[in-house]
Amino acid sequence: MNLLLLLPEDIIGPSRARIAGRRLQHVISVHQAGPGDILSVGMVNGRMGTGRITDLDGAVMEMDVVLDRDPPEKLPLTVILALPRPKVLRRMLSSLAVLGARRIVLVNSARVEKSYWQTPFLGEDAVRRQLLLGLEQARDTAFPEVLIRKLFRPFVEDELPDLSRDTIRLAAHPPATAACPRAVRGPVTLAVGPEGGFIPFEIELLRVCGFEPVSLGARILNVETAVPSLIARLF
Amino acid sequence: MNLLLLLPEDIIGPSRARIAGRRLQHVISVHQAGPGDILSVGMVNGRMGTGRITDLDGAVMEMDVVLDRDPPEKLPLTVILALPRPKVLRRMLSSLAVLGARRIVLVNSARVEKSYWQTPFLGEDAVRRQLLLGLEQARDTAFPEVLIRKLFRPFVEDELPDLSRDTIRLAAHPPATAACPRAVRGPVTLAVGPEGGFIPFEIELLRVCGFEPVSLGARILNVETAVPSLIARLF
After folding, report:
1. Which residue of A lies nearest to B220 if distances are taken between CA atoms?
2. Which of A56, B3, B213, B220 has the most C-beta neighbours closer than 10 Å?
3. What is the dotted CATH code of the domain comprising A75-234?
4. Closest by Cβ to B137, choosing from A91, A222, A229
5. What is the pLDDT, as a whole number, of residue B31?
6. pLDDT tens digit string along B52-82?
7. What is residue B30's predicted lDDT score, i.e. its pLDDT?
8. Are B146 and B127 in contact (CB under 8 A)?
9. What is the Cα–Cα distance from A233 to B9, expressed in whole angstroms?
10. Looking at the DSSP assignment, which residues form a beta bridge with residue B40?
């Protein structure tokens, strides 16, 4: 946790915050902080700054808070991600928050196992928790938007044209001959398939919607290495 | 598993292989392959090609094998990685094999918890297994070299100068002002610190050894996102 994220209910007065629970335990056990120490803090979806601990016992901590700067800019990036298996989903949500994606769309795809849609990790609170862990890691306050779309074709045909308007549209596709571009200027919509990749019909639907299939080379990356690699090349 | 890796003991005759165990179960349950089907195969640390299944029951499979091409080139990259916690270590070994690093050095660092060195995942077989999973994913046959160095300073002072000779030497360091370079030409030695980063003394030792501290921007990436991001930028 490189940033302590404050929720509206933590604010107990002008420039005063009170923290309990998981975040306090982390401050005590990992940061080993005490009264007088200064922590990096930020308001959820707001500004960042510092918090000076004024009171701390095992159950509650109070801080004087100064929020004097903006969080880092989000990347102008929407990632469309074929739903991965639950363990990987959790890590990917955190990773995408760490990396600074502005919007995440979880979609179905022919090679997504149907059982993956049953996972409790798709619940609103579970998703938010993983994003929060990512924001705390990255030192960011702004939650990415998350959309869940269980039908691939209606999403791509009806919604994606507007969602990706005026962006560079790329579909990660290991067999593609075009290389993923480097250091682009402007917003990107990036589609990433499931293990085994998008099927040809899905790639064709994406192509009709203006997506160019691109590859990172001869190696077939798993989603956990592919997504950071693609983002690092693009931005 | 995008490539079935063959071990020397699988070879039962000229261009003939016999497989059992985990790999066979994967072929049956995930690939749902049967006699006549063709799989991507490769010899460990050797060439790649195809295997045509000739016989298959629940316990054993035999194939006609043709090995007619080289594996993808390894990246000219040594990654020096402060030992992460065991769960992350396992994933990072696989990821580094997926990404094509030629050599991995696991080192101690002031912010590495001592207990991490006790993990069974540092055992030779456990390390090899994680690398194998990465090679199967990436479609590569060549194991990266793995070195384990429990003392940071003697490693950096006595061994690293030779190990990193004639390479671009970079230390990932979030507070650095220099940005990680893009698309370099030539071999790289890349040092990546633990959660919380290298301490100033360690950065200074690395600097004396010719390492330049570089950053990926305002966000603080965790090792799982930092390593693929750094590699994607560099190569």
Report:
1. A138
2. B220
3. 3.40.1280.10
4. A222
5. 87
6. 999 998 899 999 999 999 999 999 999 999 9
7. 86
8. yes
9. 41
10. B50
Architecture of domain A4-69: Beta Barrel (2.40)
Cite the residue boundaries of each domain of chain B with CATH code 3.40.1280.10: 75-234
- The b/e string for A176-204 (b: 16+ C-beta within 10 A; e otherwise) is beeebeeeeeebbbbbbbbbebbeeebbe
- CATH 2.40.240.20 residue window(s) in chain B: 4-69
pTM: 0.95
The number of C-beta contacts closer than 8 angstroms across A and B is 82
Cβ–Cβ gap A98/B229 under 8 Å: no
B98 touches chain A (CB under 8 A): yes
The percentage of residues in chain B with a pLDDT greater than 90, rounded to a whole number, is 94
Residues B157-171 pLDDT 10s: 999 999 999 999 999
Across the interface, whether the CB atoms of B138 and A220 are under 8 A apart is answered yes
Mean pLDDT of B103-130: 98
- Band (pLDDT 50/70/90 cuts) for residue B1 is confident
SS3 call for A173: coil
